[in-house]
Amino acid sequence: MRQRQPEDLQRRRVYWLVASGVFLMAMVWQHVQATRLGYRVESARQHILAMRCSNGALRMQLETILSPANLSAQARGRLGMALAAPQSFRSLDAPTATASRTGLFQRLISRTRRTLREWTAVAAPTLQTRRSLGRRALAA
pTM score > 0.70 for this model? Predict the structure, then answer.
């Protein structure tokens, strides 16, 4: 029996050595995976930061493009539009005394006037451009 004990002891040592090696390999694998995950998280953070900067730049570009001054310059330069002359506006007759008393009727008239002003501000430059193009065609 004494001869088996050293073999059993040696076997136990081998098992402990294998178990310790597996445990250490698992610890190393876990550390490597945690490091890889840390790099991926940092890369994602940098990507998010870059996207936020890009988003801010695009918002500024959009605000610049949609600014009234830029739109006016584009309308004049690329489309050939011009501001309507003051003579092209027409005012409607003043409402009667009974019409001014009723709030709904007054609001309807003022809304109609406002719509007409907006329409003439948009349509007048287009009409002036068409007229000038027609005159150029006739002159040539």
Answer: no
Block residue for tokens 């402990």: 16
> Which residues have C-beta within 8 Å of that of residue 82, sequence separation ≥ 6?
76, 125, 128, 129
Name residue, tokens 């690329």.
78
Segments making up each domain of the chain, as ranges = 1-66, 82-140
Per-residue pLDDT of the chain (140 residues; tens, 9 = 90+): 445 677 888 889 999 999 999 999 999 999 999 999 999 999 999 999 999 999 999 999 999 999 988 988 888 898 888 888 888 877 777 655 554 556 777 878 888 888 888 777 766 665 555 555 555 555 54
